[in-house]
Design goal:
533 residues; mainly alpha; Serine Threonine Protein Phosphatase 5, Tetratricopeptide repeat; 2 domains; 21 helices; TPR-like_helical_dom_sf; TPR repeat
Length: 533
């Protein structure tokens, strides 16, 4: 599931700061390691919204009003393995309308209407409003009255009675009156099974609520049983790509984590995140919170990848400090798990370099002298990223222990693919670093600007490295056969070529013109192939 997201490319924009923020998302380092040979050595460079937690949030398992009985259950916040709080066990009313469309309903004509049912609707609505305002004592009275009116108006085994039981049970769960809540949950499920069958979606929603109830009390085996059954029902009725299916899957994953079943737990949580992403919710608060939860452990690459994805989301939202801290932890973990020159380590360093450049821009605007040190940090990280990517490309066998396996050749090709993209993005970052450096040095450190403008420029050195990549048979073949690598290469050429300066020195001018001419030929050869792909 994670390997199919090996590359995440985002459109670039002109502003250096914005470009860096968008650029940070273009690669998710899920690939192994890679190869390259015959390339010239790239010289050392001469470069000297915040995480938002939900506020107090209560859960409404179901609120029925009007003549239609519908059972709903949504969980807005993830369950923390360390602290299962009420805020982490709430349901999500925002999605209720979309969810309702997939449920079976009781037709208007089949619903009894009398004075009791009218009062039931009024009491339910008032109880709901008070519940959402946190006035639990007052809400309890209305919910109790709604139970009574539902029994009198619809009959003691009617689904409306089940919904009223559930509302009151949820209130007791939130107020931690667990001994009162459990029999109400169980009776609600019994009525729903009797009315609609054991596999009805409303039964699945009720089981999810009961699972939350047990999880809050650390009754893990009971919670697991409820979530597993609810997941089966939701998968059958809603489909395996539905966000509410993913919600129950996530909660089951947290239960398995608490039971010590780490592998199964991580698989479920990762899959729940993937479903949200596939539904366009990859940057939603719910998805970010789940990625944060997944990043709490650091003993596997899957966890590190989840933490990295969260860091890039935080970076895009402007939370640079949190993103930097998370990426630094990823780097430490990768160095412990992977060989020291693995391509994932190189990519991690590239992400950190981009954040360092963004930090330098912010510090520059604040007129801080630390802006220059952030540039130097970014320079060192890019140097190392380029060195590692090239080392992996030069020696594809060094970082692999499975060359005798049937899949060894395919693994190496995947490694090479990732490494070449990391190398191209690192070279591209050289140009961005040069732009950022000039902007800062011009105003803050004018005494260093002459050194920064030495010939040849860093952009020219990076461009020559790009030319070398194109001339090398092995990487040239990859450029011609992989559309994403071709696009990355052309983008890199475009950005770096735009940074080439002019010179009044005849010999220097001739060198630049020859380089531009060569680049034009490369672009002319690659562009039609990219368009065909």
């Amino acid at each position: 599931m994670w390997s199919r997201r090996a590359f995440l490319f985002f459109q670039r924009i002109r502003s250096a700061a914005q470009f860096a923020a968008a650029d940070a998302r273009r690669v998710s380092t899920t690939g192994p390691s890679i190869s390259f040979s015959g390339s010239k050595s790239y010289g050392q460079f001469n470069y000297g919204s915040a995480w938002r937690k939900h506020p107090w949030d209560f859960m409404l398992g179901i609120m029925l009003s009007g003549p239609v009985a519908i059972y709903l259950s949504f969980s807005r916040n993830p369950v923390s393995a360390q602290d299962v709080s009420e805020a982490d066990l709430v349901t999500e009313n925002d999605e209720a309308q979309a969810y309702v469309t997939g449920l079976r309903r009781i037709e208007d004509g089949s619903v009894i209407s009398n004075s009791h049912t009218s009062r039931w609707r009024i009491f339910t609505d008032h109880g709901r409003d008070l519940f959402l305002k946190g006035k639990l004592d007052e809400a309890e009275k209305y919910f109790q009255s709604a139970v009574h009116e539902a029994k009198e108006g619809f009959g003691t085994r009617d689904p409306h009675v089940a919904s009223s039981y559930n509302n009151l049970a949820e209130l007791y769960r939130v107020s931690k009156a667990f001994e009162k809540a459990e029999p109400l949950y169980l009776e609600a499920i019994s009525i729903l099974e009797e009315s609609f069958g054991a596999d009805d979606i409303r039964v699945g929603a009720a089981l999810h609520n009961l699972g939350q109830f047990y999880l809050a009390q650390r009754k893990l085996e009971q919670a697991r049983t409820c979530y597993e059954r609810a997941l089966k029902i939701k998968g059958r009725v809603l489909g395996h790509g539905h966000t509410d299916y993913a919600n129950t899957m996530y909660h089951l994953g947290t239960v398995l984590h608490l039971l010590g079943k780490e592998k199964d737990s991580m698989a479920l949580i990762q899959e729940s995140i993937s479903i949200l992403e596939e539904n366009g919710l990859g940057e939603s608060t719910t998805c970010v919170r789940r990625m944060r939860y997944l990043s709490q452990g650091w003993d596997s690459l899957e966890t590190v990848l989840a933490a990295e994805r969260l860091a890039l989301t935080l970076q895009a939202n402007g939370s640079l400090l949190e993103a930097q801290e998370l990426l630094e932890r990823c780097l430490v973990a990768r160095k412990e798990i992977l060989p020291p020159a693995h391509v994932q380590v190189a990519a991690n360093m590239l992400h950190l370099a981009r954040i360092a450049m963004l930090n330098s821009k912010q510090l520059w605007k604040m007129k801080s002298s630390k802006a220059k040190s952030e540039l130097e940090k970014a320079k060192l990280l890019i140097d190392n990223s380029i060195r590692m990517a090239k080392a992996v490309l030069d020696h594809p066998t060094k970082n692999r222990n499975s060359l005798q396996s049937n899949n060894a050749h395919t693994d190496i090709e995947k490694d090479q693919h990732v490494a070449l993209i990391i190398l191209l993005q690192s070279l591209d970052a050289v140009g961005l670093l040069e732009v950022t450096k000039h902007e800062i040095l011009e105003t803050k450190f004018p005494e260093d600007i002459q050194e920064a403008c030495e010939f040849p420029s860093e952009a020219e050195l990076a461009l020559r490295e790009c030319v070398s990549i194109f001339k090398e048979p092995h990487t040239r073949r990859m450029l011609l056969n992989a559309s994403d690598v071709t696009a990355e290469y052309l983008s890199c050429l475009k950005h770096l070529t735009s940074l080439l300066g002019e010179s009044t020195d005849e010999s220097k001018l001739r060198v630049l013109q020859e380089l531009k001419y060569e680049l034009q030929h490369i672009e002319a050869e690659l562009t039609p192939r990219r368009q065909r792909n």
